[in-house]
Amino acid sequence: MYKKTVSIFSSLVVAIITATIPSVAYGVACQKTSGIKTYIYPGCGVKLLAQNQSVSSNLDKLLRQGRALADAGKYQKAITIYQQAARLDPKNAQIYSGIAYLEALQGNFQAASQFYQQAIAIEPHKADFQYGLGYSMAKLENYQAAVKAYRRASLLDRNNVNAHLGLGAALFRLEKYNEAIIAYQVAIQSNSNNAEAYASMGLTLLKQERFPEALEALREAVRLSPRDPGVQIKLGTALLSTGDINGGLATLEVASRLGPRNGEIQFQIAEIYKAQNNPQAALKFYQRAAYANPDLVEAKFAAAEILLESQDYLQAIIMFRQVIKKNPDRADAHYKMGLALHRRERVREARKSFERALKLFEKQNNSEGKEKVETMMTELEN
Fold first, then answer.
1. Is residue 352 within 8 Å of 330, Cβ to Cβ?
2. Residue 317 and residue 338: Cα distance in Å, rounded?
3. What is the pLDDT of residue 71?
4. What is the CATH number of the domain that holds 353?
5. By the 8 A CB rule, do 161 and 190 touch?
6. 237 vs 232: CA distance, rounded Å
7. Residue 113, Cα to own-chain centre: how many angstroms?
8. 36 within a domain of the structure (yes/no)
9. Is this model's pTM higher than 0.90 or not?
10. Residue of higher predicted confidence among 171 and 54
11. CA–CA separation, 229 vs 326, rounded Å?
12. Is residue 179 part of a domain?
């Protein structure tokens, strides 16, 4: 059971240690604080490379306009303005980097990677550009390319802790655990008070079943950041993996109390309980996750599955409906909604759900899903 826990929660490494979007990607960073997050936008302090005074004046105007749009959260409009600026000053790498940064903020990582590559073609020795490319490639799950870019970033700026963390995460994905550990060790050398580096190294050691070393690293992470629920989750996972059930569950409870309104934290705890074959505890935390973050569809779907399995069909139907409302093309949600309706003897509604699921599975070329639905539809007719 402990090996199973290690395997299931190895994904925590990448999920929690994924490095942030480059904070200095475009000239002198400008910050804007909202709640507990600090956003850093490009667009101020950009070096003007155009020589013609008229062009320079127009470029400055465009950059200021783009920065104002970025500050207002109008990223796509800002990108349009920055592209006009790039036509005026095509050798200004910071403009391409700024566009890449805004694309990354919107989750457009393919576009972001292309613009970072344009910036790198002009200024190949800029660590921030290499880091941005590594981040974008990691998001695209091109981990070989991510490793290459992160390595360049870390060589160009050895004090860039995020580059070392990103490199470790990408190497972990490639199952190069020894190399990942070295990356985390370098991060710790750069900043010995970085709890994330210790925690990430701890989970990598856990993946190798080097339990004493893993616990030592994770306990150091907790010492450095005792109120970080994500760090507590990692330690709880390690304790469960080593067989310390009571210690692991107690640590997860601490994590839950530290992040009661954090849906992702509650969801991760639920996933751990699910792996430990404790569906009722998992259900409680899935429901907490869904309450904290109503847009967390996976939490609602997982809760609905447990309700279905525990024969609480009415609550399962309610939860599956919420999932379908958020994601109407999710075939497995329609299929399981049909199961719950069937168990409640609501035959006509069940048939509609199965018919919808069948169409979606056919569209997806999912023969296994299609076969499951057809079996249930046959059962309905008998």
1. no
2. 9
3. 86
4. 1.25.40.10
5. yes
6. 9
7. 17
8. yes
9. no
10. 171
11. 28
12. no
